[in-house]
Amino acid sequence: MVFSNERFLQNFLENEVKTGMLVVDGCAGNGQKTRFLASHVGSEGMVLSFHEEREEANKTAASLFMAGLQDRVTVENGRLSADALRQELGRLTKVDLLLLDYSQSTAVDRHTINDECESAWPFLKDGGQLILALPVTDNLSSIQRSVVTDFEGPFSAACFTAKDGATLLFEKESSKEETV
């Protein structure tokens, strides 16, 4: 058996995403993971799907409609940001899981990743997970160090690396006080 980052990520999501969860697909691309997440959160859950390209957002919305999953997903045209999350979630709602999948990106921009992680971290509930899927890159440890410097409060971290990429996992631990 050959280890693959995509396989690891798929297995992780299958085991972690539960009915009723609120999940953010922060770099939805073609919407494949958005559809998967929508099918796993059930009718009681919700997925927010962010797309940089309007065409990709429209394709994802059409695909969700054809699959009967449109009521579980809000498709956003635009990058993940604190303002966009605040607009969709409000100040008090917290997210169970946040996926940022850069694995298909040809050039990984550490600053974009850092900005999106920093924007999203305050919206994770205690015990919530931030997942970064990255392509093969020489600066993996640099990206990991850069991301974690902006996290407030305690967290746990893990990394899975294979020939086709890496997944960084962060779990927000309980803190005394959270503000958004």
From TrEMBL:
Record-given protein name: SAM-dependent methyltransferase
Organism the protein comes from: Fructobacillus parabroussonetiae
Lineage of the organism: Bacteria, Bacillati, Bacillota, Bacilli, Lactobacillales
InterPro entries: SAM-dependent_MTases_sf
